[in-house]
Write a structure and sequence with these properties.
The chain is α+β, with helices and mostly antiparallel strands. It is 39% helix and 31% strand. Helix 1 (2-44) packs across helix 4 (182-189).
């Protein structure tokens, strides 16, 4: 009888977890597709010249296609994204999945949805992203990336860029927490994998991410051609 009960409990757990796993697989693939669209949006944005010209010097790229912020007295923001790392051969890795969130209290109103790109410019920034969780500004320095014509260089572990439609002017990621999404990494690659295995040793990869990787490579190549003209 005890064996029968145990078997039924196990069957119940599996029946509950399988739909959740399948849902995460769908969500991760959609997130990668949306990240590819975001890269193309930043590529065509005339204000993102500095990003395009300096992306080739970055160690990594965290793309959050939809960072949602809504507030009335108490505000907060959050979104999921993917991180790609540049290898020694300048080839970009398959994506590791992350989430970024922050909270704030103030006299705010309205709402916005932003596309966020974080250019990871230093090894210190990448090292913190390899950990399970870290805070921007505390564990790794972050600054708003230069935009527009004639933009001047900015020094930080991470340069943040945003494309926003909404009522808020400007943005700050100081204090935002970036965390690994292990359940998304598991769903996308079909087994439990750490960011180190995806981004550094590259023991796993996915053909589904080829369009995203190519879009990043194309942004760098196009910027290089324009600079040489």
């Amino acid at each position: 009888m005890n064996r029968l009960i145990s078997a039924l409990l196990l069957l119940n757990i599996v029946s509950v977890s399988l739909p959740a796993y399948a849902d995460n697989v769908s969500k991760t693939r959609e997130l990668v597709d949306n990240a590819t669209a975001s890269v193309k949006n930043f590529t065509s944005d005339p204000d993102m010249t500095y990003l395009r010209r300096h992306l080739g010097a970055a160690e990594g790229l965290l793309i959050i296609p939809s960072m949602v912020k809504g507030a009335f007295i108490v505000g907060g923001s959050g979104g999921s994204g993917v991180l790609l790392a540049k290898g020694k051969n300048k080839q970009w890795s398959s994506p590791a999945f992350y989430t970024m969130g922050s909270g704030s209290i103030g006299f705010q109103w309205g709402g916005e949805v932003s596309e966020i790109i974080l250019m990871v410019m230093t090894q210190n920034g990448m090292d913190h992203l390899m950990s399970s969780s870290f805070k921007l500004g505390a564990d790794a320095s972050v600054a708003a990336g230069p935009t527009g014509v004639g933009s001047k260089a900015q020094t930080a572990d991470i340069l943040a860029y945003s494309r926003t439609k909404g009522v808020y002017a400007g943005f700050s990621l100081e204090g935002a927490v970036v965390s690994v999404r292990p359940e998304y990494n598991t769903a996308y690659y079909g087994k439990a994998v750490r960011p180190l295995e995806i981004l550094a040793t590259r023991s796993v990869s996915s053909p589904h991410a080829d369009k995203l990787r190519q879009s990043v490579a194309d942004m760098i190549a196009d910027a290089s051609k324009q600079s040489s003209q």
